[in-house]
Every structure is written in structure tokens, then in C-alpha cells.
Amino acid sequence: MNKPNDFDRVSAYGDFQPLELGGHICVIKLVEETKSKNGKDMLVISIDTAPVDKQPGYYMEQWKQDSRQDKKWGCRVFQLVLDNEGKTNRGFKTFITAVERSNPNFQVQWGDGFTQCFKGKMIGGVFGREQYRNDQGEIKWSTKCVQFRSLEAIREGVPVPEDKLLPEQKQAADATASDFAPIDDSDVPF
What we know:
By secondary structure, this protein is α+β, with helices and mostly antiparallel strands. It is built from 4 helices and 5 strands.
């Protein structure tokens, strides 16, 4: 057998180190203006863990190790600019505020240069797990940035977000939880 061309670039099972859940110090790699599937203004924010983070350059390392032709950046956050009522989306405001608080003297450049002003800026990211169904119908987990925070908030410590379950899994979990009857502990001595 001949050695496959990409053999030295592929990680063996068990060598993969998952991103730790919770807060991370991140750096913004790219911000793109685009439209959602429904035609709403949206940002696509690509981030990586910063060199000073506990897991530095996590997504860049994944990118380098990925030998697939159609590889994609591993951490992209999709953020709508306006909410359903046409007002500023709180998530968009949170992103801007987190960047401002994490980078002294930073000011957003509205208009031309808006997306470029974020490149290389620091931001805090809170990572949690989310269920998804793969092409074979199996339920799997992915780790995603679910919130932006200031670096100060990350350093002070943020709680790990609750797992986001698929709707049918959440419904089953809620039904199981409601099957338990409350216990009358009024006569317990402690």
C-alpha cells in the first residue's frame, strides 16, 4: 500500500482535544456583512481563541489539521442586526459593547470600514454545547460561541451555559422531569 498524500496532516481518533466549555479570551479574525435566509441584515463574525487564552489558537489549529477540500472556519457567529420589530438586536448591541469594553480607545467605524474595524480586536466568548442531527440521523454535539462578553467578564468567570437540546430531546427531557411528584418533607427532622 502507498502512503496517502494527506496521511501526516490527519489527526488520529483520540488525539482531538475539545474546546473547554465556558469563557474564552478570543480575537476577531473577520466580520462580514451579509443577509440571512429571510433577507435580514446580518453579520458573520469569525473568531479564534487568543494567544493568551487557556487554549490558544484553537480554531486555527483545527483549520490547519483539516485536509478536506470544502473545509470551513470552525467558529462563526451569525448575528442579526435588527430584531423582528426593526429595532437594534440586543445580540448585535452586546457584540459592539463587548468589543468596545475589551479594547481601550476602540470606536466603531460606522459606514465604510465597519467590518474592517473589528479585525484583530479582542473579545470574550462564552462557549456551550448544542445538539444536532448528522447526515445519518444520529444525535451529536457541537461546541459553539453562544454569547459575547467583555474580557473583564471572562476573567472574572462566567458560568457554562446549559446544553441546547434538539426540540424533540428537550420535549422528552421536560416530560421526564414532570413525571416526578413533589415529596412532602414537612415531617423530616432536617
